[in-house]
Amino acid sequence: MSQRLGSYPPRFAAATLGLLAGFSGLCTPLHAQNTDQLQNAVPDRQRAVPVPVENLQQAAPPAAAQQPVPAKLPKPSPQDSVVSRLIAQLMPSEHVSGKDLDNTLSARALDLYIQTLDPLKLYFLQSDIDQFERYSTVVDDHVRAGNLDLAYYIFERFTQRVDQRVAKIRELLKGDFDFNIDEQVIIDRDAAQYARDDAEATDRWRRQLKLSLLDLKDSDEPVVGQEARDQLMRRYDRYANRWRSTSSDDILEMFLTSVTNSYDPHSTYMSPATLDDFNISMALNLDGIGASLGEKDGTTQVKAIIPGGAADLNGKLKPDDSIVSVGQGDDGEMVDIIEMPLKDVVKLIRGKAGTTVRLGVRPGGTGNMEIVKIVRAHIELKDSAARGKVIEHEIPGQPGKLKIGYLNLPSFYMDMEGARRNDPEYRSSTRDVAKILEDFKKENVAGVVLDLSRNGGGSLTEAISLTGLFIDQGPVVQVKDANGSVQKYDDDHPGTVWDGPLVVLTSKLSASASEILAGAIKDYHRGIIVGDPQTHGKGTVQTLMDIGQSLFRIRRANYGALKVTLQQFYLPDGQSTQLDGVAADIVLPSVISKMPVAEGDLDYALAHDRINPAKHDLYRMAPADLINSLRASSQQRIAQDEEFIELMRRIGLYVEQKDLKTISLNEDKFMQRRAEMKAQKDEQEKEIEAQIGSEEVFHDTFYNQEVLNITQQYIEGLRAQNLARAN
């Protein structure tokens, strides 16, 4: 089995709900024909040869430092050792970086493994970390040797600390808490330090419990008194039981994913159970809310909203929100899911189309908990298809209106089954966009806005062919593999469907295939880019390699799978879309641009680089003097627009809250802060309500009106320079 994966940026333990084939655990493209899929060139592998072990005793933890093994602690299997050795071989040979598994990656892997277990630094002591750091340069040696002693040694210590902390939590919850004193709790992982001793650990947990009690009190359905204490105790008992029931497969997945994540955040190891879940989801049409979820610091975090899904139609769930509880139907009990394994959360949220699920959500991860009611739905191709609308834009300060074609493209899709059947009417993004552009021409529009602001990617083939609707012929994207070889992918269809003024609207959520189209349009000087300062920055391709097949050439047993980043995207001019994304020519203010949802917000993301440019045409549709003029005019309008001024105030508040390192545990101050956050949230409700429903092609907001103002001025500027082409 070898599959190419792309589009929405995944993270370890990410999962996707409300899914078509391909949506589970990997955040793959919406319709799973994902040709971030190039040629299928992953070679078969022969059975791994055991690596000679030299001085392994020096690398293993000293006997004196090891604690008694709990009765239920799982043991690694011989199969685990084989998988470990094979991962050590495959990563250097298949990963696009071509890096050896060395001491630098070893230290990263150790840090990531510790972080996976204890992300908020609440369980381990500093003395534990000091002991673990002694082995920071031998993780690579252990993996090559198939030795998992260090992984189990650290896991054993962690489960001991969990049991100790949960016992202390039980004691603390029997005591009193003073909410009148002004003390702080650290909420920023980077600012937190490991406790130096048990006394300091106890004090940190006392503060954590105060924060949790205030959280429960300040929610849509307040929980107070003994009920709140009982709920917290159940939460931490569940957390301890979660780790006690950890299997050897789970430990192997955590440890080897820490190793693969040391190369980049998209390379992961899937255990046999995870691979089985993935294969089942590939074969079934599953219903849910249509959101990509991940796990962060013990909570379930929204990574992305899938266009056309139930959450998208609802409009209230946003990237970077945290889900803290789940209820079934209109009045089912709200189940606390903090510290619950993500796969169990997925089971609670997923369900039959037409049924209701209620989510307890903290906007941005720190806001007031509010209940969001979503009716589950099955995502259909039509729900995420391209749609267009002709807008008669009133020219500010001038008589008359200007016709502008607005084209909303949520993903790059193709009906693969219809294409295989040679159905002459099969759906694809290129076909649908071409029809819309033809309709625009019949309506005599003066320019086109292509909205990719919610487009998380999809089919690379579609991105190339769709770019060809706006350029004649030439390279659209270049791809480099682990050997350093570069392959160029061209639009080889002569002619265009639209050769007039083009504005591409992007955001920090525009990823992968959408970045390729936007980047090509920019490199060709074919149009202008408007939106967030830069796009998402995911410029890599992943493949899924079945470990059993790699070992035995045929799948004789389930050994799990390796998802590895094996290629990187580059634009026609040679710049990679990785990390830096595609920069906007004209930047508009937005909250999304400040959210930590881009490639650069992930640990150890691959660096931006460049290769040699590919020869291509240059159009005269993006003159520098005109772009400078458009930028200055837009900034002037924004500075005088009350709604933009209010938006920038809200952005400032969001950044202020996001950057907080600590929170006051004084109840009055805590509640005052939450009231301010709620007021800010309420101010956005009308704006959110106006955007609910995917039936709307164009949302008539102040932001989009400014996009049209830029487009109108752009069209006039091209006409003044005799550059706008007639259709």
UniProtKB/TrEMBL annotation:
GO MF annotations in UniProt: serine-type endopeptidase activity
Enzyme class (EC, first level): hydrolase
Signal peptide: 1-32
Sequence segments annotated as region (Disordered): 57-76
A single BP term in Gene Ontology: signal transduction
NCBIfam families assigned: prc
Sections of the chain in a coiled coil: 667-694
Family from the record: Belongs to the peptidase S41A family.
Keywords carried by this UniProt record: Coiled coil, Hydrolase, Protease, Serine protease, Signal
PANTHER family assigned: CARBOXYL-TERMINAL-PROCESSING PEPTIDASE 3, CHLOROPLASTIC, TAIL-SPECIFIC PROTEASE
Keyword Ribosomal protein: no
Organism: Allorhodopirellula heiligendammensis
Alphabetical list of SUPFAM superfamilies matching this protein: ClpP/crotonase, PDZ domain-like
EC number(s) reported in the record: 3.4.21.102
Gene Ontology CC terms: outer membrane-bounded periplasmic space
Record flagged with keyword Acyltransferase: no
Biased composition (Low complexity): 57-70
Pfam families: DUF3340 (PF11818), PDZ (PF00595), Peptidase_S41 (PF03572), TSP_NTD (PF17804)
InterPro entries assigned to the protein according to its UniProt record, in alphabetical order: ClpP/crotonase-like_dom_sf (IPR029045), PDZ (IPR001478), PDZ_sf (IPR036034), Peptidase_S41A (IPR004447), Tail-specific_protease (IPR005151), Tail_Prtase_C (IPR020992), TSP_N (IPR040573)
Protein name: Tail-specific protease
PDZ domain: residues covered: 279-350
